[in-house]
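Researcher: Go.
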Amino acid sequence: MPSANDLRKGMAIKYNNDICIVLETQHRTPGNLRAFVQASLRSLKSGRTSDVRFSSTEKVEVVSKETKKMEYSYKDQTGYHFSDPQTYEETVLQDDLVGHAKDFLVENMTVDVTFVEGKAAQVELPPTVELKITESADGIKGDSASNVMKPATVETGLVVQVPLFIKEGEKIKVRTSDGAYMSRA
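Model: Structure:
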């Protein structure tokens, strides 16, 4: 059984008779105290996120998980619909489970969906996505003396800061970790 020092982002563990996904971990050694691991866990039963402090030598029970490549189909009042390209089996995920990934999902996009004990637990996006700009103000001629950025709304509703030369209708690459503009697509 691994110790709390071995916890990594994305692992599934048993904690308080519940299965939780590790969202973030930090190893801390404050002054003259013993080292500990601060972990942010999301419960699969309730969907709630909590910060938990483990002793660095405390044992944790790791639960096996399965990751499937799935295609995003559409969103309606019941949730976000994903389908397995091999079996055409459909999975519906709620807003809280999709999280910030909803800002980057476009139809027919392939994402990794993690399942723990047959239940969807997490949506993992690719590092970058291509999104089409639906709304953007025009840049003013001569206003390019420095690295000036303007807000632009993409097809998912996300507002991204882009350079002045980017116009409506263009496709851009956006980094999914922080929603930053990278380049034209």
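Model: The first helix runs from residue 95 to 98.
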